[in-house]
Amino acid sequence: MAAKKKKHTKALRKINGTVSSASASQLQAFMLHVICGLGLASAFWVAHNVYSISLISDPSQTLRLIWLVEALIVILFYSLFRQNPNECSYLKAVGRGLLGLPAGAVMNAFGAIVLGAPVHIHYFRKTLDWSLLMSVFTFVPAASIFGSSWIDWQRIFAHTKPIGCIDYMICLPAHGAVIGAWFGAWPMPLDWERPWQVFVLLPLNMICYM
Amino acid sequence: MASILYFRRVLFCSALFLLFFISLFEFLTDFDLERTHTPTESLNLTMSSLTCTKLTLFTVIAVFIQIIGLLLFVLGFFPVKSALSGVSGVESYRPPGCSSVQNQNVTTPISHELHRSLYRELSEIPPLFDRLILMVIDGLPAEFVLGKDGKPPPKALVEAMPFTQSLLAKGMAIGYHAKAASPTVTMPRLKAVVSGAIGGFLDIAFNFNTQALSDDNLIGQFFRIGWKMVMLGDETWLKLFPGLFTRHDGVSSFFVKDTVHVDHNVSRHLNEELNRTDWNMLILHYLGLDHVGHTGGRNSVLMGPKLTEMDEVIEKIHLSTIQTRNIDNERTLLMVISDHGMAENGNHGGSSFEETDSLALFIGLRNYYHASASHITAHQVDIAPTLALLFGVPIPKNNVGILLMENFHSLTDDQQLRALELNSWQLLRLLEVQLPDLACGSLSCNVSGDFHWYHANKCTGGVEEMFCCLFLDAAALHKSWKSKKVAGANNRDDYSASVLAYKEFLKTASQWISRRATNRPIGLLAAGLAVMVLSCMLLLRLLLQLCREVHLRKEPHLSDVNNNMHKGHLDQTFVLAIILILVLSMGSSSMVEEEQYIWHFVTSTLYLVLLRKTIQCIPPGMVQGSLGAIRGQNQRIYIQTCSTIVILVSGRLLRGWHQGGVNWTHLPDISKWLEQAGSAHIKAIHLISCLLVISLSLYTLSLLSSHRNFVMVVGFIFLFPGLLVLQHIIKYNNSGFAASSYGATLMAQIIYTILGIFTLVIVIALPWLMPVRNLETCSRPDLYLATDVLSDVQSKLLLGGFRDSTYVIGWVYMFCWCLLQLLLQQPINSMPVLLLLIQILASMCYYSNSDLHLKQWVEVGALYYLAMAGHFGLGNTNTLATIDVAGAFIGISNHSTLFSGILMFVITYASPMLVLLSMVMYISLKDTIPLMNAQDVDFGHLLKMTVGFPCLVPLGLNSIFLVAYTIVLLLMRNHLFVWSVFSPKYMYVCATTTCVFIGAFIVASTGIYTCMVFSFRRMLQNSSRNASQERMVSG
């Protein structure tokens, strides 16, 4: 874990050296990620100790708690790094982030369902909460920072060509979460009859996020 | 350790074979694929290295050697047991091969009583018992009762079974370590116990629709002499012998965690049955011990109490048999056996000592000679002949076991020798089937007592001679002993000599036959594997060469396309990654069982990756793009995005249609939901999908912009069989009895005929009839002077004709296949057929709009993956149980294995075949004109560029999977699930290979035929043009 973080910072430093127009310093980006990580950890802690629920016993509740906490942190903090801060107020960036949350959830839910997530009224809440959480990691930061700038969206998500610190701040968690979720789905068909198999995807994407 | 060595040996041998083949190959052919071409080299050189003929030739060779390799491997891995059909009768009491017996083959039915007395009279051995209690303790290792290597079992286990141990100690019982053959799972082992035969996997595969044991067996023999039989316990017995039991109470082995109720359900009837006297055989099958093993392993804390429970049952039965003996003078044999042992963790199925060490315990005979020798080793198959002779029935025909002589010591010397003789005759008959040259059976009739055949030296020579010699030795000794006995001189030495001779023969014969049944010849396996690897390498090399060539061709063209085409190759990487993922996942039994998840997951991901690639191509100035070119590109991207989403959504529906797999079949899915909703809904869906298939197909046909009228005629011709299928659905479906009625059969036959004839006629005639604007339309005099231009235009027109006709032929193939599927598949599967068609058409739509964004092999590969995902979407799994047997009899009036086999194949491989047939349409979609040298249209080259990928990519992919799976099967041959999971999967892999071969053959032959017709037409046109030109000049 520590090694990963180190690598991460190294990468950021490299970017910062080459790209001068980055409006966020490497330290700021690092702090942001630390805050997000802490938010995640505290959400888990609260779920575990205050409500005494976990991903296995009550996935829907836990996921809801996590995404609520994360969404708050992500929207508030990422909005600070919005593009063109002169033309776009902080509140507008927050609003964009809030709009991006359901939109991203729809996209993520589409992806998950197409890849085989169950479509049943029984699983509806779980899928909803999961896609909201994924949206917090993938869509909301980009929505807060870029708004509806298609070129930037295409650069980050279709080409995966981040330029500068801010791009990396969006790109790494988003791709980490998606790839982590994708790999997390692999152990599901194994018949080990372990309850964590179903929810292995979340811890994994957390790891990727870190 | 031994298994690793074996595997290494196989690999080593196959590597040797491979080296040999490759060197031979390189020597024989000047196959210079290795030559590296730098892009700066002239194009001509590159082209000459792989001509169309060469490509075809090498592909055919590769396919051919793949077939040979597959055959070799299958023959080596699944040895075919040559089982004798029929049931042993009175002839088994006469020596084999004597011609006089053949005439007396009485076929008139005889009553049970007559059978019994006839057998008793002919066998010359009085039955030692009247009643049999067969107590099967599932999964009990013999070690628990008899100990290992001459040592008694652990103290705890001895104390757990006090009664049984006391019986053994007093010599009232005799126990054997009965070695079971692999696979050590219940059903094959029960078959071995009752029939004495060792079955091969192919027997299981070929009898997938009937579970009943049709071979000669003890239960059937007992039934023939009129025994009343009662069965309590595992319901496997009921599946094996339906209708033979007078009373039964089957329990299911489904809940492995239940260790109490399964046994209670057996024991609750015990008191009642023991008090009754109306049965001759009582089978008790206790599953509890196996369940204890599965949940807690061999040393589970529940093991002791379970053994005590079994011991109490044995005690109860034994006491009651003594009672009946005293009252009715009926002699009862209690036989305690286990079907297999268990490994340290409680699982079984493999062939380790712990798993094969099963028990055979005879209780009821008095005074055994070797009471202390309670650790005699035997084979599980030896139980069958022993029981047969103890109870006076013929030994089952396919038995490979030997008598357990210790049970016959109460008989006279004469009778004991007779028992050995009967066993030898039976084995000799079996040997005669395996070795047709063995002819000592007839000799045995003429062996005279005074003739001293006996050799003091060892029998040597070939297999046949050795068996002959051994058998005749024994027969001669027996005869001489008999004649001496008649003379009054009872010689003990002669007796033991003939017993020894018989035992020698029986042992050799039994070992030889059983080794033949389970032996996997290394040479065959290695040669098969090597040949398959070779053909796989050949195909991949051809593919690589073709790729390189296309790439070089495209290079000048690509240079002016904008730069971002070269960047992202995620799609190509992912197509290759899918191969790796699938190959790796094949090694896990649960992944093989649940393969549908993997295919669906990777296919959906691939299309999501393609979606991402499409989004990459959106130009930055999309919104304000006012130029015509950009607008056109936008429209293209729009179509691509839509078709990808259509593919993804219908793929998701397909996945949801059948839950599939093995472990999660109980989960809800759309098909279950529809079946609950009632048959009216299903019928409606069937009709709707049929209508939609027809209209969608007609719409697709109308998309061909040129020659609209001509194409519409074709469409209307094919509307006719479409309507027939529709009528068949309306009239006959949904009513079980009507589906097999005469009318339905006739109609299905008419539909088959019409579809077959129409397709054949259209495919043959279409390239000739396809209107190409010929000389009249473009024969304006001003063009006559520019011959070059004219020929160029003409070539392009002919090329257009080629594309149009492949489009129509591809359409015909797909439409006919879909109609056939709508007729044959279960009504519930009609919607998946429609969804598959939609997916394929959407893919076609996508590919026709992406000229150079995607490599051709990526497109064909994606289609292939779609086919496999669709295969599982239709409800197929990797077990043989999901093959639709009922559908295979639609339109067949009398039973024909060939036709129903073909229909079964058609139903099971609906999806891969549909995709392969759609490749013909795919050929027409690729814009080949920029690839062509405008000056001369070389049809051979055209063929290579168009047909090459659609044929080679499926062949290559399939060969990779085949080779990988062959290696997996070799590695897993001692795995617990080798017979239940891996071998059925291998059957499917073989069938898929066949399917790909057929599909590729159809694609290639259609392409070649169409091409040849068009080149012929061009020749005709050229000659006619030359003639008219000459006329012009002369005029």
TrEMBL record, chain A:
<feature type="transmembrane region" description="Helical">
    <location>
        <begin position="165"/>
        <end position="186"/>
    </location>
</feature>
<protein>
    <recommendedName>
        <fullName>Phosphatidylinositol-glycan biosynthesis class F protein</fullName>
    </recommendedName>
</protein>
<dbReference type="Pfam" id="PF06699">
    <property type="entry name" value="PIG-F"/>
</dbReference>
<comment type="pathway">
    <text>Glycolipid biosynthesis; glycosylphosphatidylinositol-anchor biosynthesis.</text>
</comment>
<keyword id="KW-1133">Transmembrane helix</keyword>
<dbReference type="InterPro" id="IPR009580">
    <property type="entry name" value="GPI_biosynthesis_protein_Pig-F"/>
</dbReference>
<keyword id="KW-0256">Endoplasmic reticulum</keyword>
<dbReference type="GO" id="GO:0005789">
    <property type="term" value="C:endoplasmic reticulum membrane"/>
</dbReference>
<feature type="transmembrane region" description="Helical">
    <location>
        <begin position="30"/>
        <end position="51"/>
    </location>
</feature>
<feature type="transmembrane region" description="Helical">
    <location>
        <begin position="93"/>
        <end position="118"/>
    </location>
</feature>
<feature type="transmembrane region" description="Helical">
    <location>
        <begin position="63"/>
        <end position="81"/>
    </location>
</feature>
<feature type="transmembrane region" description="Helical">
    <location>
        <begin position="130"/>
        <end position="153"/>
    </location>
</feature>
<keyword id="KW-0337">GPI-anchor biosynthesis</keyword>
<dbReference type="GO" id="GO:0006506">
    <property type="term" value="P:GPI anchor biosynthetic process"/>
</dbReference>
<keyword id="KW-0472">Membrane</keyword>
<keyword id="KW-0812">Transmembrane</keyword>
UniProtKB/TrEMBL annotation, chain B:
<feature type="domain" description="GPI ethanolamine phosphate transferase 2 C-terminal">
    <location>
        <begin position="820"/>
        <end position="998"/>
    </location>
</feature>
<comment type="similarity">
    <text>Belongs to the PIGG/PIGN/PIGO family. PIGG subfamily.</text>
</comment>
<feature type="transmembrane region" description="Helical">
    <location>
        <begin position="986"/>
        <end position="1016"/>
    </location>
</feature>
<keyword id="KW-0325">Glycoprotein</keyword>
<feature type="domain" description="GPI ethanolamine phosphate transferase 2 C-terminal">
    <location>
        <begin position="572"/>
        <end position="707"/>
    </location>
</feature>
<keyword id="KW-0256">Endoplasmic reticulum</keyword>
<feature type="transmembrane region" description="Helical">
    <location>
        <begin position="750"/>
        <end position="770"/>
    </location>
</feature>
<feature type="transmembrane region" description="Helical">
    <location>
        <begin position="573"/>
        <end position="591"/>
    </location>
</feature>
<dbReference type="InterPro" id="IPR045687">
    <property type="entry name" value="PIGG/GPI7_C"/>
</dbReference>
<feature type="transmembrane region" description="Helical">
    <location>
        <begin position="830"/>
        <end position="850"/>
    </location>
</feature>
<dbReference type="InterPro" id="IPR037674">
    <property type="entry name" value="PIG-G_N"/>
</dbReference>
<feature type="transmembrane region" description="Helical">
    <location>
        <begin position="6"/>
        <end position="28"/>
    </location>
</feature>
<dbReference type="GO" id="GO:0006506">
    <property type="term" value="P:GPI anchor biosynthetic process"/>
</dbReference>
<keyword id="KW-0337">GPI-anchor biosynthesis</keyword>
<dbReference type="InterPro" id="IPR002591">
    <property type="entry name" value="Phosphodiest/P_Trfase"/>
</dbReference>
<feature type="transmembrane region" description="Helical">
    <location>
        <begin position="946"/>
        <end position="971"/>
    </location>
</feature>
<feature type="transmembrane region" description="Helical">
    <location>
        <begin position="522"/>
        <end position="544"/>
    </location>
</feature>
<dbReference type="Pfam" id="PF19316">
    <property type="entry name" value="PIGO_PIGG"/>
</dbReference>
<dbReference type="GO" id="GO:0005789">
    <property type="term" value="C:endoplasmic reticulum membrane"/>
</dbReference>
<feature type="transmembrane region" description="Helical">
    <location>
        <begin position="710"/>
        <end position="730"/>
    </location>
</feature>
<dbReference type="Pfam" id="PF01663">
    <property type="entry name" value="Phosphodiest"/>
</dbReference>
<dbReference type="GO" id="GO:0016740">
    <property type="term" value="F:transferase activity"/>
</dbReference>
